[in-house]
Amino acid sequence: MAWKRREKVAIMEPLSMVSDVMSQILREESDIIIEGTLSNFISLKSLLELRKLDVVFSEVYDANTSIIEGLDFLRKLKAQFPAIDMIIHTEIEIPALLIQSNADAIYMKQLGVEGCRASAAQILNATSMVSVLFYEDRKLRYDFEMLSDYEWEVLIMFSQQMSITEIATKMKTQYRRISRVKHIIMDKLKVSNNVAFSQFMALAGSKFGEYPPVSLK
């Protein structure tokens, strides 16, 4: 990534230790200005409405937002502010969903002080933000297709545990169409069967604290 002079940066990170370490490392870079360290998406949205930012570092959840809801926020954020470099810095390793954010780069968070410093240094030293970057030895396996806006809207409703019938009613369309869209979504995300899809949606629709907690070592 080619960092510009006087880069204005915001960090949205619900884990205070990670936020503190990221802020410290970025402040050590003299040309980076931290405009805000935030713990939720509502505060991030407010900051973006008030100030012009160059880069946003963001986790994909906060205390009140599921993974799917967080990714939906980031997807809309990138569409609204295309000039902002959006970097996802996350512990949630669900690549099929993460790429739906349209983020400029995606890095897996390393927890603990030293791990966080290492992942932050990797971001600062990156030469390009064009690729979606996971751990180098795994990124070639992450070959997932982008969902259309309609497919993404249907996926959100599945993550809210709505049935095909309920979605069809809400979307004012036929059961058969939503069933077909579901299979297209499963094919794009490489989910093999209905049971796996239900489990996938149960995880993606969970809020932080409802799925296994993070252990900071």
From TrEMBL:
Stored Gene3D superfamilies: 3.40.50.2300
Keywords associated with the record: DNA-binding
Organism superkingdom: Bacteria
UniProt domain Response regulatory: residue ranges: 8-124
Keyword check for Glycosyltransferase: no
Record's keyword annotation contains Coiled coil: no
The protein, known as: Response regulatory domain-containing protein
